[in-house]
Amino acid sequence: MAPITPERRLTYYEELRHRGYSRRDFMKFCTVMAAYLGLEASGTAQITKALMNTPRIPVIWLHFQECTCCSESFIRSSHPIVADIILDKISLDYTETLMAASGHAAEAAMQKTMKDHYGEYVLCVEGSVSNYGDGEYCCIGGKSSKQILQEAAAGAKAILAWGSCACNGCVQAAKPNPTQATPIHKLVKGKPIIKVPGCPPIGEVMAGTLVHLVTFGAIPELDRVGRPKAFYSKRVHDSCYRRPYYDAGLFAETFDDENAKKGYCLYKVGCKGPMTYNACGVIKWNNGVSYPIQSGHGCIGCSEENFWDNGPLYRQMSSFPGFGIEANADKVGLVAAGAVGAGIAVHAIATNIQKRRLIVDVIDEGKKAEKELDNPLS
Amino acid sequence: MKGQRLRRVFVWELPVRIFHWLNVLAIFVLCVTGYLIGNPPALLSGAEASNRYMFGIIRFLHFTAAYIFMFNLLFRVYWSIAGNKYANWRNFVPTNGRYFTEIFKVLKIDIFLQRGKEHMSVGHNALAGFMYFVIFLASLFMVVTGLGLLADNSTWWFTRAFIWVPAFFGSDFAVRNWHHAFMWLFIIFTLIHVYLVFYHDYVEGRGEISSMGGGWKFIEEEQFQAEKPE
Q1: pLDDT value of residue A297
Q2: Angle (CA) A243 A246 A250, round 5°
Q3: CA-CA distances (angstroms) from residue A352 to A134, A159, B194?
């Protein structure tokens, strides 16, 4: 280990040893992270090497229009080092929720990090930005959220958009979206943005994404909408342990019927698993204890865009835009088909009245021809 | 009155008829299985889930019918260039003012049932042709959204090429909702289409219904002389 001098920033490993973690704890952590990231066996060594040799990356964690559930999820991720390595004193230079400093001191700390580590720090954003007017709906320290974001984003190496707020706007962006809650990628251009959606995202997924950033010095492989492929490439449905019931066509109809007790698929009570890309079925929640479907409640699709306006939560079909809350596509379609059916009936009757002359002519003609066949000489 | 002399005209070529009935079959299967996928029946069964694959089969049928529907549609696009003049794309896409004049005429005579000189077309009338164009666009929409929903589960490069669709709509939620809503367009189209075929057969007596079986229509001598089909 290199000697520790005031000029040199500590590596993650050094910081952890100082905090009293054993090497064994550290190695366990590296192994767990490699597994979550889906790396091969040698990945553990790569992560170990990176965390032992790279000085910690400064992190600025901003909070805008949100509920802090992302932070809550993060500090409860299954391995204690996860929270310590990023959120505790080690890496975090600024975060409203957990930092010790407050007021001008805190703002000064952020400015200092932004200046000293320009182009190096990772910017984590939790929450959506109010884009309404001058951004007066969300102000911190006298600045609007939009202003803060743009200042902080300028010198960021990469931006991590935590949770559905920062990725899609989430419930604050639900119609009619009075504050014009706007996701990060619509306001910041020209910076790598990693979206980690979910309400909240799984703590291990957040940690894994950060560890990947530290280990490989590059953003992880992202899918078509900018989410890390390691965690968002499969639908909840595809890793669901109730999937065999879905394929068999066995569904719970209500939450207290016989089928629900048997653990049948929750598709008919509105499970959005078939449309939701997340790792819930694999990594699960609360140290891998369970996840919503395992606990008997359908997936609400919290990591998907616009899930809040695609209600109702307990029915499979969404309500249809412009036709009220209760009207889904089937009801609208059925009414339209009924109206068309009635129209056809009216049209058929009207045809017989209006086109009577023509129809009678055609019939007469046919009858005449028939007679001619019977009496060819007449 | 004087008896009408009818001439037999070959209108619908065999590929057009095969397209039509394959399309009927595909749309029927797609609507039924699609509706079931959106709103599956509640089954009570004592059998082990591992012995059943009911919903899996429904989805399999849906995907199979969808591929048939798509390739059938592609073939019809080709035939709109290669086929005879009744199959030509000009029957469907308005390219001149005459097309619109005919649409208004058909609206007047056949939809609002005005008395007057009947509008007797040999192939599609302009209004019907235009409606088929509309349903063709709706079919494209269904194909694209359907492939988009399937893309993530598919291993075929062609289907995977539509992976941008859910991202374009925002999420699978929206794609699924629209894909489902458009089904009703096809149901309503079918209702009107079948009714109007019966209407023409009944009012005009020229073998409208059977024409999609054998390809023949019966055209009045005077109109035959006026139009001189090839």
Answers
A1: 93
A2: 130
A3: 67, 71, 18
φ, ψ of residue A186 in degrees (nearest 5): -85, -10
Return the DSSP state at B108. Answer: I
Please give chain A's pLDDT, 378 residues, in tens: 455 555 567 788 888 888 888 999 889 888 888 888 888 888 899 889 988 888 878 888 888 999 989 888 888 776 767 667 666 544 566 777 777 777 888 888 888 888 888 988 889 999 999 988 888 899 888 889 999 999 999 989 999 999 999 999 899 999 889 999 999 999 998 899 999 999 999 988 988 888 888 788 888 999 888 999 989 988 999 999 999 899 888 899 899 988 888 889 999 998 999 989 999 998 898 888 899 999 999 999 999 988 888 878 888 777 766 666 667 778 888 889 999 999 999 999 988 888 888 888 888 888 888 888 887 665
- Asked if residue B29 lies in contact with residue B62, where contact means CB atoms within 8 angstroms, the answer is yes
Compute the distance between CA of residue A212 and CA of residue A192 in angstroms, rounded to an integer.
14
Distance from CA of A248 to the nearest CA of B (A): 4
Task: Report the distance separating Cα A373 and Cα B72, nearest Å.
Answer: 44
B164 within 8 A of B178, measured Cβ to Cβ: no
CA distance B137 to A353: 36
Q: Which amino acid is at A15?
A: E
Cα dist. A99→A30, A40, A68, A107 in Å?
26, 36, 14, 11
**From its phi and psi, is residue B42 left (phi > 0), alpha (psi between -120 and 50) or beta?**
beta
The correct CATH number of A12-232 out of 3.40.50.700, 3.10.20.30, 3.40.50.2300, 3.40.50.10190 is: 3.40.50.700
Query: Does A262 lie at the interface with B, CB-CB under 8 angstroms?
Result: no
Residue in the block written with tokens 């049932």? B113
| Burial state string for A263-288 with b = 16 or more CB within 10 A and e = fewer than 16 | bbbbbbbbbbbbbbbbbbbbbbbeee
Domain CATH number, residue B119: 1.20.950.20
Interface test with A, best of B35, B50, B51, B55 (most A CBs within 10 A): B55
Show residues of chain B in contact with A235, CB under 8 Å: 152
| Interface touch A276/B172, C-beta < 8 Å | yes
Fold of A236-309: Cytochrome-c3 Hydrogenase; Chain A, domain 2 (4.10.480)
ipTM of the complex in this document? 0.81
Name which of B54, B164, B174 is nearest A224 (Cβ-Cβ): B164
The verdict on A249 touching B (C-beta cutoff 8 Å) is yes
